[in-house]
Design goal:
Helix content: 40-55%
Low-confidence stretches: 140-155
Distance between the termini: 53 Å
CATH architecture of the largest domain: 3-Layer(aba) Sandwich
CATH superfamily of the largest domain: P-loop containing nucleotide triphosphate hydrolases
CATH class of the largest domain: Alpha Beta
Oligomer: single chain
Strand content: 5-15%
Largest sheet: 7 strands, parallel
Length: 707
């Protein structure tokens, strides 16, 4: 139960914050603070600091304008400190992460009178590896012939790249750069950055000669003393996958806040999925075989490295032969979709495999398990040799080759896990996996990507996060679908005793009009619908205004753009021609210059795009945002729901579309003074029986629906 002392601390800090900034309390923000305080304040701990109570998870939907960052920071900081726990703030995007660290937390600390420390936590992949940078500049960066993870090989280091790495080293030496990718003053191409960063498999950790200067480890030290740690969903999930407490504080010692929490289930699925490309893996195995001699020539005398390495060529050959055996079978299945433009994947119905393929998957699992174990032993021998002051191999050589072996081991392990997921049948009655094949253009031919993924992350999140953590808050502007939290609960696995709440918005939604004009047609007829868009858009859009037009299909977006009059095409910024940020910058520049501007975008423009005031006076939504029908995970989920007697369309497809439509409509009103129009050019919202449920789930806009 929330103690009077903690309640008073929260109330006083909130009053000081408002008074100091000359603000009035927002009704929705006050309710959010109270809801989170009740949930987290009800956490009970035993003498060892272990949680003994339930009902410790709070799910809060709070729309734009609620002030949700202060709404969760203020009560969570005070209660976490009172419980002796770390507060971990997790976001889905770097932009929000930086806003919380650089603006919201300093602002709250300055104006609330609260005393707390905070820091930012990022993964190794966001920091430069000094050892790799040194090696590249010394001309030894290309020792590993198997460096590319797939066939998409990194280009050789050209003169321009050498200048880039030299400027990085100069900036580090002059303390003008902190080693983070995000703070480098210019954009960095992925291939340029990949050469000078690392992961936990390649990093020698505390044994590295550069550890005292390592920016990653410097940042990691700050985690032990900070009251509040700001990070992202991917790093939280990576830590949980390692058992929790490996990177961040352990779940039992943490109170989590997941901002942009609607993205957490999808992020979790990505972490638990497996994939590998057949022909690329065969080439990688060949490259390992060729590169093994060079590695042994320099570090073979370290411990028992040579003894384990003697067995590696046979293990590589076994893996290669098994992959060659399975290729014709998988290629035949993949070819089955080659003539169907609507499908880009071959999905195994019900996740069930032909027996011949399942048996081959068992053999592949055993082969890669053996290879992984041998490489793991070699890595461990190198580890021990780096600790040995009397090792016959110089430490500099061990450090240089350790990332090579670490990369090999990681890839062998990834293949082992993939084939294990194919070899082991799903347990009857439990949620199955989706298993599918995707043909991929690769060089002169077609490779086959073999994939598997859980169809729901609920069980894994429940076991690794919700039931282990001291407390958690999940918040976002869009968590409820069709007015209920059933969809989020199914996908995220939040406990049954979690608290769910929707905060009232401060916006006057009557300042926006939602219209479905009589000229709108049903989007189910694709050709007729595209014709209607081409005819309607010039009539609907004001050439002097700023507008956002959202499409669900890239093909339709391109077709409509091509068929519009040239005078309109000149006003349109279309996704794909520029980066998302460059499009938004150009759009704002046009509006600032007094011109009209039209953005044509896909799903990524329906979420997280902030265009307040004159930057967006009209949002046009081409059609109801139903999921792409060939998404293998969503198709497998729908199949599972139907097999259990449910209605996949009403239980999954319609709620998903409702949520996406709310996100799309949310691009219009970004502040309390905003006004404008939303036009939906899909008549199914009027003619289909599910349309009324979707309409009723939208904010209370003024509706003009042509009958």
């Amino acid at each position: 139960m929330l103690s009077d002392a903690v309640k008073s601390d929260i109330q006083q800090a909130y009053s000081r914050f408002l008074d100091s900034r000359g603000l009035k309390a927002r009704y929705g923000q006050k309710l959010m603070i109270a809801e989170i305080a009740r949930t987290l304040g009800g956490i009970e701990l035993d003498d060892d600091g272990e949680r003994t109570s339930r009902g410790h998870v709070c799910v809060v939907e709070a729309g734009t304008g609620t002030g949700k960052t202060v709404g969760y920071l203020l009560p969570a900081l005070i209660i976490a400190k009172a419980l002796g726990k770390k507060l971990v703030i997790s976001t889905a995007t770097i932009a929000l992460q930086e806003q919380v660290v650089n603006k919201d937390l300093p602002d709250l600390k300055h104006h609330s009178g609260l005393s707390f420390s905070f820091t930012l936590a990022k993964g190794r992949g966001r920091y430069v590896c000094l050892s790799k940078l040194d090696n590249l500049l010394e001309g030894v960066g290309d020792l590993d012939p198997t460096r590319p993870l797939y066939e998409d090989e990194l280009p050789s280091v050209d003169e321009q790249a050498v200048k880039l790495y030299g400027s990085m080293m100069e900036a580090l030496a002059a303390n003008r750069w902190d080693g983070e990718r995000d703070s480098w003053p210019e954009g960095l191409a992925q291939e340029d950055w990949q050469r000078v960063t690392t992961d936990h498999r390649q990093c020698t950790g505390r044994r590295c000669s550069n550890v005292s200067s390592c920016h990653f480890f410097r940042a990691r030290e700050a985690l032990h003393t900070a009251d509040c740690i700001v990070t992202n969903h991917d790093l939280v999930l990576a830590d949980l996958a390692l058992g929790g407490g490996a990177i961040l504080p352990g779940p039992a010692d943490s109170i989590y806040v997941f901002d942009e929490g609607h993205q957490l289930p999808a992020k979790a699925l990505n972490h638990f999925a497996h994939h590998s490309r057949l022909l690329a893996t065969v080439r990688w195995l060949d490259q390992c075989n060729k590169g093994l001699g060079a590695v042994l020539g320099e570090i073979g005398e370290a411990g028992d490295v040579a003894r384990f390495a003697e067995q590696v060529p046979a293990a590589l050959l076994d893996c290669r032969q098994r992959l060659e055996e399975v290729h014709p079978l998988l290629n035949e299945l993949a070819q089955a979709i080659s003539h169907d433009e609507r499908q880009s994947h071959y999905r195994f119905p019900g996740g069930m495999l032909p027996e011949a393929l399942r048996q081959t998957a068992e053999e592949l699992y055993r082969c890669f398990d053996r290879l992984s174990a041998l490489l793991d032993k070699m890595v461990e021998e190198v580890n021990q040799a780096m600790e040995d002051a009397h090792s016959p191999v110089p430490k500099v050589d061990l450090e240089r080759h350790y990332p090579v072996l670490g990369t090999w081991q990681a890839r062998a392990e990834a293949n082992r896990e993939l084939w294990h997921s194919y070899a082991v049948a799903d347990i009857e009655g439990e949620v199955p996996k989706a298993r599918w094949l995707t043909p991929v253009e690769a060089g002169m031919g077609v490779d086959i990507e073999v994939c598997s993924s859980p169809i729901l992350a609920a069980d894994t999140l429940a076991k690794s996060l919700w039931y282990r953590c001291c407390g958690a808050v999940v918040t976002s502007a869009t968590l409820a679908a069709l007015g209920r939290f059933d969809r989020f609960r199914m996908r995220a696995g939040t406990p049954k005793d979690s608290q769910y709440a929707q905060m009232p918005s401060p916006f006057d939604f009557s300042q926006a009009t939602l219209e479905v004009p009589a000229s709108a047609v049903e989007a189910g007829d694709a050709l007729r619908h595209t014709d209607a868009l081409v005819n309607n858009l010039p009539e609907l859009l004001d050439p002097s205004e700023a507008s956002l037009v959202l499409f669900s299909s890239r093909r339709q977006m391109l077709d409509v753009h091509e068929r519009l009059p040239e005078s309109w095409r000149e006003r349109i910024l279309i996704q794909g021609e520029l980066s998302k940020q460059a499009m938004l910058d150009a759009h704002r520049a046009r509006v600032d210059d007094g011109q009209g501007s039209v953005l044509f975008g896909l799903a990524s423009f329906a979420e997280g795009v902030d265009l307040p005031g004159d930057y967006c006076r009209r949002v046009v939504i081409a059609k109801l945002p139903f999921a792409v029908p060939d998404d293998p995970i969503e198709a497998a989920l729908a199949e599972w729901v139907e097999a259990r007697g449910g209605n996949a369309f009403m239980e999954i497809t319609v709620p998903d579309a409702s949520l996406k439509l709310i996100q799309a409509c949310g691009r219009l009103l970004r502040s309390e003074s905003d006004r404008g129009r939303i036009t939906l050019l899909d008549r199914r919202i009027v003619t289909k029986r599910y349309g009324k449920a979707i309409l009723n789930s939208l904010p209370p806009f003024r509706q003009v629906i042509a009958s």
